[in-house]
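Handout, page 2. Input:
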Amino acid sequence: MTPIDIRASVLTLHQQSTGLREISRVLHLSRNTVRGILREPQGVQTPAHLVNEVTQQQLTEVYARAKGNAVRMAQILADEYKLHPPYSTLTRWVRQAELRQPPKRSGEYHFEPGQEMQHDTSPHKMEVAGKSITAQCAGLTLAYSRRLFIWYYPRFTRFEAKDFLLRAAQFMDGTCPLCVIDNTSVILAGGAGPDAVFAPEMAAFARALGFKFMAHRVNDPGSQSQNRAPLAWVEDNFLPGRSFSSFDDLNAQALKWCVEVANAKPKRSLGMAPEVAYVMEKPYLTSLSIVLPAVYEVFERVVDLYGLSASTRNRVSTPERLVSGDGDGCTSITPVSEIHYKRTPGGQSSPFAGVRDACSTLPGHHTIPNARLASLR
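Output:
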């Protein structure tokens, strides 16, 4: 029985002229407990911990002045009203007076196999090649099976977003028809939530992979919780205690961790590991096309007097015949950066990851010695 039921039973037996010992024996209570219940005043009593009307009026006024900041409220109450309630008591008064909007009851989202996938990014601090950097962790999760894929980038623009979505689609060996994102300008051209306008190039890239984007409602991040929570889990469980020599090493370890840990560990909400649930979801995914869209970035560059062409704060050598000429640069995250002149390849090099102000001379370029150029290197 609850304490209220026990109290009512004691009072009922007492009104029936039942003795103290008998009440104690029947209800399995000590006689002191029975005596205490019988000595309590009868009738409905106002709890002593409720704040009185005068203090409640002061509390309402101070709450509005302090804009809901309980610490500032305590200072004002002490300075102007000589009230010194403990912090826990003050917050209880605020709750009892219903000055704050009560938290909403959280619900659960239920997804069918192949219904939806979720994409999000998060900045993570780490050390790469002995340098402290902030890298962008991009993640994609299948909503039904919770299968996770992550990849790290020095930055995250539409160029990196396309590369990530392609890698994620290949890792999942298919896509869901809908990809829920936050209201990021990387993918959006304007608006938010139901009124979001997606960038044409990103919408076209998504169509090539067999899905379309949907931005969640503003102030409703719970609709994307399947991917937000794993990214925080990645930061707390994957990064600690690991060292990385380069971004290639970082992503190789991240991919291995996804396969061997994140997707292999059983989840209580699923009752199984994501990899097992993925086997059931796989037949419902949209198969990838035989020809996948290429990920590249094209820009115009001028070859300087040193025979170098700038690319993302770094310089790459070009044939000497292109000095002071115009060229087209084509950058891809992997495997190379290429330079073209009138549709003719002029050179290529490995991309610079996390490096600035570096210079790369390709084999066969600048074969004629130049003392001044050598001094710059």
